[in-house]
Amino acid sequence: VLPEYMVPSAFVTLDALPLTANGKLDRRALPEPVPAGGAGGQAARTPAEEVLCTLFAEALGLPSVSVDDDFFRLGGHSLLATRLVCRIRALLGTQLSLTDFFRHPTAALLAGHLAGAVAEDRPALVAVERGATVPLSPAQQRLWFLDQLEGPSATYNIPLAVRVRGTLDREALRGALSDVVARHEVLRTRYPAQDGTPYQSVLPVESIDLALPVVPMTEDALQDTLGELAGSLAFDLARDLPLRGTLLELAPDDHVLLLVVHHIASDGWSNTPLMRDLGTAYEARLDGVAPGWEPLPVQYADYTLWQRDILGSADDPDSVISTQLAYWKGALAELPETVSLPADRPRPVVASYRGATHTVSCPAETHRALTALARETGTTFFMVAQAAVAALLTRSGAGTDIAIGSLVAGRGDEALDDLVGFFVNTLVLRTDTGGDPSFRELLRRARETDLAAWAHQDVPFDRLVEALNPERSASRHPLFQVMLTVADAVDPAPPLPGADTSARQLPLGAAKFDFTVNFHEHHSHDGGPAGLDITIEYATDLYDAVTMRAAAARLVRLLGAAVTEPETPIGRIDLFGEAERAELLVAYNETATELPTATLPELFTAQAARTPGAVALVCGEVELTYRQLDVSSDGFAHRLVAAGVRPGDRVGLFLDRSVAYVVAMLGVLKAGGVYVPLDA
């Protein structure tokens, strides 16, 4: 039953809506439109508008929403919109895409659009009978392949550190962890292979004996210990449970719970149900009972089979997988091989995935202004961040065809809201920055790119790579090398009675891409923008810390200019601070120096006199000292003079790269000639 202030006038509660046998809204049984109420005799709302106004308010956490209120101007973002679209599809039984919702962001516009929408025809996500083996989801398949290729490592771990200050019952906590593992099958699933093909092996609840070792710890050693534990733990996917816990004790009333989950079993959005269920189970265990929660409607294995059913066969031209792949083949045609910041050193043949991070902050006023710009332009904060990163790459020399990776939640059904699992999918967002557009124009382009991509987000990334078949390399990520994420700055923590808790994800010292730009939004108690932290995670194979610090500072300046001068072409935005500008324009150009007046042979002869025994030339196993090289080149110069070479004569060097080549070069110069390299 909804709170009274959220009850629309056409019916009493959402539960009281007339539903069909399959749980869809029976539109024919809805009452006639009724006046919306209020002064001035407002126009009547249709029943569909009443339903949508209620759903809008529920999603946004607002007392009420009018038919003309824009969802995004009220603070909605793409993740909320995704959940709301799922809710509307489930309740109204009609097809509705995220793109449709962005184009019809008010209850009035959306009701009009839905009036002509076709009925939802995809199968329902329900628990199903399973065969002898359940295959991996496409996302899991890719991680399993990488694990086989590279061996077990911490690269794809998700480490969570929960600080617990107050009374803690360790046995209740261990029992609660076991309850959570029992509730979510994916946390007690192993991934063995049969004839080279992996499958999901779900362990029975009664076989789970989850350990929670306790490690005494000091505050000084805490951070190093957390980093070491999170970065060194490797899972054997065929034998191990994908979750491990360790309790670090700093004092009787001060602990840190370290949970490490392999990405094959979880994702960032799973942290919320994971922490919530842990808190619920802990409270029950304190009372000596098992948690009395309702069983989950589906498990991850059910989702895996449903996803395969939804995607259909690539042999069917009308299937979801075929139609969406056709879109991506056009959208990503002739994509640049590499789009990244200029590197400090050559790309290695095989990436080591070693990484580091650098964080900068933006004040609350900048955050508020960026959010306001997003609402004004009908975009989201993610699109603002995407436009800024694309502009930064272009201004840094990456060209005007910018591919950036992005994550989508992948929870396309309400039944997945409370489930732990690996649902996220990766999209390639291709932004055209050509023509030196204004930031406002770049935002418009980003919006169109994203809406089209989100409408085709069901294709698993590995299937996309397989279909597009870019040149493969162990040195870089396929299709894109720069990742962008936007998330809330506060990680969910489990509510534990008798204690204050806070949680944070730990850095792993790893980088899956050239660099990832993570925007973390802070919010005030009323939900308003309260500042930004921007963390850049970068590959140390390619970049030095000073390079990333400079890039982060330029990004902050670009964001500031974007909100103060959104009509300014991105090519005219000043990205440099005073110190950096002085270094580029003055220090690097301070090249005045006294130059020697001697010739090259004279300079070499003088060096040979100073350090005759020092090594001057190395070629394979051969080494010559300055004395040896000087004597050899002198002898060759005498032969040239005897052969008739005079000052200014040209002497061809028809030689391969060798010791003889260097001797000949110096000999020609000592004879007064000019050496002319010839292609041997």
Structure, described:
- The chain is built from 19 helices and 21 strands.
- The chain has 680 residues and is α+β, with helices and mostly antiparallel strands.
- A 6-stranded mixed β-sheet has the order 11-17-16-14-12-13, covered by helices on one side.
- Helix 19 links the parallel strand 20 (650-653) and strand 21.
- Helix 18 (626-642) packs across helix 19 (659-670).
Characterize this entry briefly:
With 680 residues, the protein is an alpha+beta fold. 37% of the residues lie in helices and 18% in strands.
Could you give the topology of this structure?
Elements: E1 34-35, E2 44-45, H1 47-60, H2 78-92, H3 98-103, H4 107-115, E3 134-135, H5 138-150, E4 157-166, H6 170-183, E5 189-190, E6 193-194, E7 197-202, E8 214-216, H7 219-232, E9 243-251, E10 254-262, H8 271-286, H9 300-311, H10 320-331, E11 355-362, H11 364-376, H12 381-398, E12 401-408, E13 425-432, H13 439-454, H14 461-468, E14 482-488, E15 499-505, E16 515-523, E17 529-539, H15 545-564, H16 578-587, H17 600-610, E18 615-619, E19 622-625, H18 626-642, E20 650-653, H19 659-670, E21 674-677
Parallel strand pairs: 8-9, 12-14, 14-16, 20-21
Antiparallel strand pairs: 1-2, 3-7, 4-10, 4-15, 5-7, 6-7, 9-10, 11-17, 12-13, 16-17, 18-19
Helix pairs in contact: 1-2, 1-4, 6-8, 11-15, 12-13, 12-15, 18-19
